Structure to design on (328 residues):
């Protein structure tokens, strides 16, 4: 019988659902399609979150990760404590309902980060870009996007042994030299703490809600950026790319060939880029399989970090893996 070697590589994704404590944000990133002005977005009520999560337990597509993604209340605001407690309670609720929370709500104080570690299996914050010039442009009204502040967050997460996701936002006015510097900064943190499980390469994609309407990142360049990241970052870091923002299957495959191995959280709705719905898992698998790529679900915490987590969270993970044997 004629036989040939069939190449088969694995690319992972996290079956995820995003909940948004609030869209209100004191920053104005000009590319943002998410924010509303402070006081203009009612906070997600705990009772509503509970019924939402209960429904998710019976969703046709099984969900494991709850991505808690929020607009920000100023650290000095009188409402900061209530905002933080609200986020903490939403994470507790997600755990209670049998999910694994991953929180990305902007920069936190050391103490806030320490507390959230108790109710998250991993956390995230995009570095965006280390280029200070962006303070005069897209981040002019976004104090939270200070590169030093974000770098300090990576350091604190390392000190606290929190499995962490970070990444670069591409196409917001930076140069290719800035990509190198930002990637090298992440590599340096990894050498110190070893806590960065993945780096997202996120192409800026214009949407209907933003002030800016900049031109989209040129996706043809993405495979080269992935290759650059693969060359600079250590092998312990997985490179993540968002399939809903990479609309051409051939480009998605080119990014995988260049070294990307994860497609991030895939769920019904992308809260950050609502104009770019996620493809279904079936469709993605159908696109990737003929090219030699196997799509595989993963947890929001990679196995080598599980011993860093509080023991209750480790128990919860065991339970979930047992109950979702048909998924994982
Ligand atoms: O697991 C994470 N996924 C992050 N993702 C990916 C996310 O899991 C999915 O792409 C969807 O947004 C989920 O609905 C981001 C996606 C973006 O468009 C912008 C930023 C992020 C940030 C994170 C993050 O901190 N952690
Ligand atoms: C939560 C993360 O979403 C990313 N983000 C915010 N707005 C956009 C956009 N229009 N396109 C792509 N990514 C965006 C930023 O990197 C932020 O940190
Ligand atoms: S990107 Fe995040 S920090 Fe910037 S305005 Fe939007 S919600 Fe706020």
């Amino acid at each position: 019988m004629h036989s040939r070697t069939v190449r088969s590589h694995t690319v992972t994704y996290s079956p995820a659902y995003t909940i948004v404590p609030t869209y209100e944000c004191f920053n104005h990133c000009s590319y943002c399609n998410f924010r509303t002005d402070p006081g203009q977005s009612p906070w997600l009520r705990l009772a509503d979150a509970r019924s939402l999560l209960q429904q998710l337990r019976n969703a046709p597509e099984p969900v494991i990760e709850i991505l808690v993604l929020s607009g920000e209340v100023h650290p000095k605001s009188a409402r900061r404590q209530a905002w933080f407690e609200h986020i903490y309670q939403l994470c507790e609720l997600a755990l209670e309902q049998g999910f694994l929370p991953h929180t990305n709500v902007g920069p936190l104080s050391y103490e806030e980060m320490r507390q959230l570690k108790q109710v998250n299996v991993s956390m995230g914050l995009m570095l965006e870009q280390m280029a200070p010039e962006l303070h005069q442009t897209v981040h002019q009204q976004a104090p939270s996007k200070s590169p030093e502040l974000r770098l300090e967050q990576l350091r604190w997460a390392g000190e606290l042994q929190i499995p962490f996701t970070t990444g670069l936002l591409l196409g917001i006015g930076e140069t290719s030299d800035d990509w190198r510097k930002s990637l090298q900064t992440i590599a340096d943190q990894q050498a110190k703490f070893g806590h960065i499980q993945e780096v997202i390469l996120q192409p800026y994609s214009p949407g209907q809600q933003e002030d800016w309407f900049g031109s989209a990142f040129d996706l043809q360049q993405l495979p080269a950026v992935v290759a650059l990241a693969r060359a600079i970052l250590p092998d312990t870091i997985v490179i993540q790319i968002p399939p809903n923002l990479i609309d051409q299957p051939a480009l998605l495959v080119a990014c995988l060939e260049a070294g990307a191995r994860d497609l991030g959280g895939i769920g019904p709705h992308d809260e950050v880029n609502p104009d770019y719905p996620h493809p279904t898992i079936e469709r993605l698998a159908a696109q990737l399989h003929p090219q030699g790529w196997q799509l595989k679900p993963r947890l929001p915490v990679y196995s080598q970090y599980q011993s860093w987590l509080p023991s209750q969270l480790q128990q919860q993970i065991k339970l979930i893996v047992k109950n979702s044997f048909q998924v994982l």
The longest strand covers residues 9-19. The chain has a mean pLDDT of 95.
